Amino acid sequence: MEIKTINYDKIDETMYLYQHESGLKAFVIPKKGYSKKYAAFGTHYGSINNEFIVDGEKIKVPDGIAHFLEHKLFEQKDGSVMDKFSKLGSSPNAYTSFSQTVYLFSCTDKFFENFNLLLDYVQNPYITEESVEKEKSIIGQEIRMYDDNANWRVFFNLLDAFYEKNTVKIDIAGTVESISKIDREILYKCYNTFYHPSNMVIIVVGDVEPEKVFEMVEKNIIKGKKDIKIQRIFPEEPVAINKPYIEQKLAVSMPLFQMGFKDINFETKGIKCLNREIAVKILLEIILGRSSSLYTELYNEGLINNTFDFDYSIEENYAFSSFGGESKDPLLVKEKVVNRIKDLYQKGINKKDYQRIKKAMRGRFVKQLNSVDRTAHMFMSVYFKEVNIFDYLDVYDQISFDYVEKVFSEHFDTQRLAVSVIKPV
Amino acid sequence: MFKDNQVKKIASANGITLFWIQTQKFKTNSINIFFHDNLTNENASKNALIPAVLRRGCSKHPSIRDISLYLDELYGTSFDCGVTKKGENQIIQFYIECISDKYISEDIDLTKKAFDFLMEIITEPVMENGCFKNEYVIQEIDKMKELIKGRVNDKMHYAIDRCLEEMCINEPFGIYDYGSLENLKSINNKDLYEYYLKFIKTLPMYVFVSGDLKPEQIEYIKDNLFKIKRDVEIDIKEAEIEVAVDKVKNVIETFDVNQGKLSLGFRTNTYPNDEEYYKLILYNSILGGGVQSKLFQNVREKEGLAYYVFSRLEKFKGLMVISSGIEIANKDKTIKIINEQLEEIVKGNITEYEYEAAQKSIETGIKSIKDSQLQLVDFYLSQFITKSDDSPDMVIEKVKNVSVKDVADIASKIKLDTIYFITNKERGN
């Protein structure tokens, strides 16, 4: 068995890697002295993948199916797999994001029994018509819960403002209507297409021996067909934003907003992708972070409060920045942001700001490695971009001021600025 | 003190107690300073405003911007402060966390700088005409009004908080962590500043330093901490736990929502420092403490009524709340099924699986505390408040000794007090 070891001496971390003959890669990041052990088994398949080719046939599946499948995988021939994890004292969980579905558990004891169970159930679906029907009412309540969640709604409305066709705008759980069309057969079709080991990854973080983890992977992963090629179909998305403004009313105390820039011409894989992410995040800090003059102005004028935050997402077929929170006048916030950006176009970015923020972001990155859960989660969120979390260290060390300046002029184009607002009923 | 070698009491004088959680596991060092007060209508909003105003600036870094520029230079050191309640105590927290010096190339003592900064925030506010800077006070009062009004924005948490508040409407626990809009109306800068001087001198202070520090760093922290001028500290009262329920209270609030939110509030009549409390921990886990619990298995898995359903303890006040998001029309049915689960436990109908899984889930949860500095600090602070000296391992041992019969016994002490429901205007109830 060939195990690759990569040392990151600067931050006292080591990562071990093993590739199974099916094509699946498994990673271990040992955490000496930690009680908690965390394992995740993920597939490169999420809510955006609703059209693909199976056996030469192009099919379109109901919205929300990746998430539905995630719920159904917990069901096994001899009952719910959750019960088995519970008996071992671990907490099983799973989540579906735009481009991945991840099954995980954390435990403090009997790691290998838990791990065995994880590998087993994810590879052996047992879905019955009856259980699919029952799940519709549970997920129906999940959807209703999100329908009332203003933070969730304001974010998805922003995606709708950005994108005309891109499937990222579709709610991860789908709608009550779309999931009503889901049946056993179509769930299996999705499973058989996307749950091939070569489309999946395993990450274990905690005080465990990497060799033992990899031995279990070697033994328990089903080899399957070799060289399968998944053909995902994504609709062609125009460069322009779908609509500049979108508004909804909900039972909230004051308006809530999210706004941001739809990105174009970005790299979707590799270190370039992380470079862009960090460059935009540095720029967001410079423009509207707590150390910016704009933040002070907005805060002092009562236009934002402590709920204000910002982020940048970059995946295989979309990228965008977003920032928002509660505000009595979201459109005035927009006006001030636009003016500040115009101002920066004239005056240019201050190199000292770039250096200071880069240093702070690197420190915050190191801090996140304190948490077993956080480390595994971060690993998963970047893995399918063909990078690993420790590549961020290289990015912080190497990202140049020229590059950040270039990204500024590319990303912060007010033609591609969209605004989403939730107003009180 | 704690029967545990992980946390050390370094010193205690003038109502200030300093603890050190010594650990090399983490890449950061953290310092938490807590002030304790009794939760009262008179002071709740003032206590909440103090950290809000102090965080705006100190003499050396007089604005949010200056603070942020400085923390960036300290390699992204995190700083925050705020207020929470534990039972009928209001706790005002100041927190700072910096990465360990070994991960930076410069030769500076980051931990010392972080501590100095936190002390400056607490003891050297930005002054104007013998008070706080007026602009900061006015703005923070406005923000706090927004925050209090904004509680309704998160219906899931709101439904839990409101249930317990309605239940304890005539007790200090019924006061919201941030006080009320009414309290805020009467606060001005002069009163608040005078209150702050009293706050610094008389509220008991607990300081937790956590991480891989050198003894001389601890010495430095100790010396500077005890320079704070103090008067006689105030007495912290214990919450009233045993409260009789005459009649179950029904509370309904109406919003324009898709999903109904149901909360059931209970009196456990169990003190957090009593041996009975360990029975309650297991009881709660069996009832609604995870996927193995009776509520999850029946309300969600069997009946498909909800996506989330759980029970949770508020140990400092001896309360328990059950919460779920359901179809509005299913309110009565859900309550019926919840009641059946409560009855089952009273009768001692607990399967071996439910018992074992609950035990293990508690064990895993408590062991995991050791992997987070903030959770460790919270654990020891909570133990300190309840005057319990058990370490995490001892809590696990004591829960292990709880039998099925013990759980059934404690179940009979738990009384439903309030049923709270969020419903929709059109659908009514």
What does this structure look like?
The complex is a heterodimer of chains A (425) and B (429). Chain A has 15 helices and 17 strands. Chain A has 425 residues and is an alpha+beta fold. Chain A has 2 domains: 3-232, Metalloenzyme, LuxS/M16 peptidase-like (Cytochrome Bc1 Complex, Chain A, domain 1); 245-424, Cytochrome Bc1 Complex, Chain A, domain 1 (2-Layer Sandwich). In chain A, strand 5 and strand 6 (57-60) form a beta hairpin. Chain A is globular. Chain A starts with a strand and ends with a strand. Chain B has 429 residues and is of the alpha+beta class. Chain B has helices at 44-54, 64-73, 110-123, 134-149, 155-167, 181-185, 189-202, 215-225, 276-288, 294-302, 331-346, 352-368, 373-385, 392-400, 404-411, and strands at 7-13, 16-22, 28-38, 78-86, 89-99, 127-128, 131-132, 205-211, 249-255, 260-267, 306-314, 319-326, 415-424. In chain B, helix 1 (44-54) packs across helix 7 (189-202) and helix 9 crosses helix 15 (404-411). At the A-B interface, helix 2, helix 4, helix 10 and helix 12 of A face helix 2, strand 5, helix 4, strand 11 and helix 12 of B.
Give the arrangement of secondary structure elements.
The complex is a heterodimer of chains A (425) and B (429).
Chain A: E1 3-8, E2 13-19, E3 25-30, E4 37-43, E5 51-54, E6 57-60, H1 65-72, E7 75-76, E8 79-80, H2 81-87, E9 91-96, E10 101-107, H3 111-123, H4 129-147, H5 150-162, H6 176-179, H7 184-194, E11 200-206, H8 210-220, E12 231-232, E13 245-250, E14 256-261, H9 271-288, H10 293-300, E15 309-314, E16 319-326, H11 330-347, H12 351-368, H13 372-383, H14 391-398, H15 401-411, E17 417-424
Parallel strand pairs in A: 3-11, 13-17
Antiparallel strand pairs in A: 1-2, 2-3, 4-10, 4-11, 5-6, 5-12, 7-8, 9-10, 14-16, 14-17, 15-16
Helix pairs in contact in A: 3-8, 9-12, 9-14, 9-15
Chain B: E1 7-13, E2 16-22, E3 28-38, H1 44-54, H2 64-73, E4 78-86, E5 89-99, H3 110-123, E6 127-128, E7 131-132, H4 134-149, H5 155-167, H6 181-185, H7 189-202, E8 205-211, H8 215-225, E9 249-255, E10 260-267, H9 276-288, H10 294-302, E11 306-314, E12 319-326, H11 331-346, H12 352-368, H13 373-385, H14 392-400, H15 404-411, E13 415-424
Parallel strand pairs in B: 2-8, 9-13
Antiparallel strand pairs in B: 1-2, 3-5, 3-8, 4-5, 6-7, 10-12, 10-13, 11-12
